Protein 1
Amino acid sequence: MSAATAAVQDTEKPRKARSLASPVQSKPRLPIIGAAIALIIVMALLFVWILQSQGRSETVFAVKGDIARGHIFEVDDLTAVQIPEGEPIPHFLTTQQGDVIGKTAVVDIPAGSLVVPKAISSGAGLPDDQSLVGMSLNNSQLPPYPLTNGDKVRIVSTPANQAEVPRETPQAVSASVVSTEKDTVSGQTLVAVMVPKADAPILAAKAATGRVALILDGDK
C-alpha cells in the first residue's frame, strides 16, 4: 500500500466515526419531553384548583346583637356572613331561614356569633323535667344586685303584711334565672325562673299572691 493511499484511509476513518455518531446525537428524546409536558400540565391544573378552592365560601346566619336565652328569633335578629366552604363548625345557610325564624334560643348567644343548631329549639328549650315560672317582683323582693341568666336563686315564702316573723325556716324553692325584664309601666321586674316540674305549681301559686322573695345564691 502506498503512502498516499494510507493517508486517504486515515482521513476517512474519523469521518465514518462522526457519521456513525451523529444520528444518535440528533435523535429526539420523546419520552422525557412528553413526561415533562405532562408534569407542567398537572402542576398548572393543581395551581388553578388551589386558587379556586381558596376562594370558595358559603353564606351563613349570624346574630346582629346579643341574644338572650328564651328569645324567639325574628328576621331582624339575623345577618349574613361568609365562611370558608366546608367549615366544620355547624351552621345554618341563609337558604335555611325557615329552620331559624320562630325558634327559641336555648342559650345566650353573643353578637356576631354563628347560629348553630344546638343553640336553638322549636320549644322553650327546657329539659323534660323542668318548668318555667314567671314572677313579677318589686325592689324589696329582689336582692340589690343585678340578675343575669343562669344565676342560682331560691324563692322563699314570706309572711303576710304586718304578720309576725316566722319562727321556722320558711319554705324555699331552688331555681335558676332564665330571663329578667323591667316593666316600665308598673316598675316591677319580671323574672322567669326554671324549676323542677314538681315545684312549679306551688311556686306559681305563691308568686301569684306576691308573698315571695328571691335570694341570689353562689354558683357552687
Note: The longest strand covers residues 172-182.
Protein 2
Amino acid sequence: MRVTILAVVLMASLTACITINTTPGDQSKPPSSPGTSAPGTSNAGTDDKGQPQTVLTAELTMQGKPGLGLLALKNAGAAPTKVQGWPKLSFSDPTGTPMAIPVKRELVPGEGPEITLQPGQSAWAGVLLESNDADSRALNVLSVEVSGSAPAKVKIIGTSGQEVIDTTKIKVSTAKVGTLQPITQGVLTFDY
C-alpha cells in the first residue's frame, strides 16, 4: 500500500513538472533553449519524446529590396526529415539578450506543403526584416527552428554574396515570415 501511494505521488509530481506546448509559439518570445551552435547550425539532441532532433543549417540571403531575405533551411542530418508551415524566428541583441521582435506569419506564397527533406536538401521561406527609426534595435543573432529541431543560428549573407560579420548594423523593429516551400519561386512576394 505504501509503495502504491508513493508511486502515485511520484507520478503526480512528474506530471506537474512536464509542460507540453501544443499551440503555435508566440513569435515574439525567444526559443526555450537557444543553444550554442556554430553559425548556421542547430544543436543535435533529442526532443521531449526522446527522438533525435532534426539538424538544420540556416542562411538568410539578403535581396535587393531593404530587409528582404531568402531563408534556406538545409537538412544537415543523416536521416530524412519533414517540415511544414512557418519557421519560428527569434532575435537577440548585441548583449545576447532576447529581443521581443513581433513576427507576423504570412501566407507567402501560400499554404506551406509538407516537405520531406532528404539529407542535404533545403526548403525556403521569405523573410522581411522591417525597421523604423523609433523602434528599431540592432540585431546580433537571428535564430530559426521548425517542429522537431533545435534552434539554428542563421548565417546572414549580404547582397554582395559575402557573410555579414557585423550583424549589429542590421536594424529590426518587426519581421514577417512566409511559409516553407520546396522551391524558391514566389517566396519573396510580400506586400510592402
Note: The CA atoms of residues 3 and 63 lie 64 Å apart.
